[in-house]
Fold:
Amino acid sequence: MTNTYFATDGNCGSAEGLVVIDTSDWTESEWDIILSAPDEERARIAQEISSFSDDDLSSADLEQI
Structure:
């Protein structure tokens, strides 16, 4: 099976490894981590950040990701 994504900005492509995450509650620190992460690690790191509840995520947790 081939999965393809279609975005409202007109982009499309292979959806292999595509991860969709609600980032509406992310902090500036979490965004800094994602934006500085290597492309090939970004999806994994985003999943790790999102796996913590807001109350459980500490600065130490962010440093370990």
Summary: The mean pLDDT is 86. The chain has one domain: 19-64. Residues 19-64 form one domain. The helical segments are 28-36, 42-51, 59-64.
